[in-house]
Amino acid sequence: MAEPITITAEARERAGKGAARAARRAGKIPAVIYGDKQPPTMINCNVLEINRLIKDPSFTTHMYQVEVDGDSHRVLTRDVQLDPVTDDVIHLDFLRVGETTTITIAVPVFFVNEAASPGLKIGGVLNIVRREVDLVCRADNIPESLTVDLTGRQLNESIHISSVTLPEGTRTAITDRDFTVATIAAPSGLRSEAAEGEGG
């Protein structure tokens, strides 16, 4: 897992919509840190810093170290509220995590070695069923992503989670079935030819 990224924030004394609007007018993003059996901490974050960090696809899976007036909080992003018109970030929820905190988190799935898939080579189409998979893991052991190797995958083959190597110390949140992550589907041209052959 990557090292935590530091976010510098300032304490916010008052809660409520009025205080939040005042923070936004001052170029800040209101936020709250909660969890780990500690009282919530209200903070204001720098809008430029958050706008830079949120561009990273791993914004919600990366660990952050929030520095607030000399105190340090290790957190994960749990909720991002956006303005419905401008899509600007207007509020953040951070989950405070301890050394033994176990969480369920959506981890992005990436596919590699497409050129080594016979099914894709003959014109098959990679149909991604799950772009993210919910994993259960310790907060200090969150994987950046899952990797699915397409080497040897054939046309009309389904790729199930059981064939994906999970990072050590993690498990899927869904445990009652071997769910599909992706399929290699025949293109419409091949399907049409097969249907005509059957009809003939």
Question: Key features?
Answer:
single chain; alpha+beta; Ribosomal Protein L25, Chain P; RNA Polymerase Alpha Subunit, Chain A, domain 2; 2 domains; six-stranded mixed β-barrel
Q: Can you lay out the helices and strands and say which pair or pack?
A:
Layout: E1 5-11, H1 17-25, E2 28-35, E3 38-46, H2 47-53, E4 63-68, E5 71-82, E6 89-96, E7 102-112, H3 118-121, E8 125-128, E9 132-138, E10 146-149, E11 158-160, E12 171-172, E13 180-185, H4 188-199
Parallel strand pairs: 1-4, 2-6, 7-10
Antiparallel strand pairs: 1-3, 2-3, 4-5, 5-6, 7-9, 8-13, 9-12, 11-13
Provide structural commentary.
With 200 residues, the protein is an alpha+beta fold. It folds into two domains: 5-96, Beta Barrel (Ribosomal Protein L25, Chain P); 102-199, Ribosomal protein L25, C-terminal domain (RNA Polymerase Alpha Subunit, Chain A, domain 2, Beta Complex). 16% of the residues lie in helices and 44% in strands. It contains four helices and 13 strands. The protein has helices spanning 17-25, 47-53, 118-121, 188-199; strands at residues 5-11, 28-35, 38-46, 63-68, 71-82, 89-96, 102-112, 125-128, 132-138, 146-149, 158-160, 171-172, 180-185. It has a six-stranded mixed barrel with strand order 1-3-2-6-5-4. A four-stranded mixed beta sheet has the order 10-7-9-12, with no helix packed on it. A three-stranded antiparallel beta sheet has the order 8-13-11, with no helix packed on it. Strand 5 and strand 6 form a beta hairpin. The longest helix has 12 residues, at 188-199. The chain is elongated.
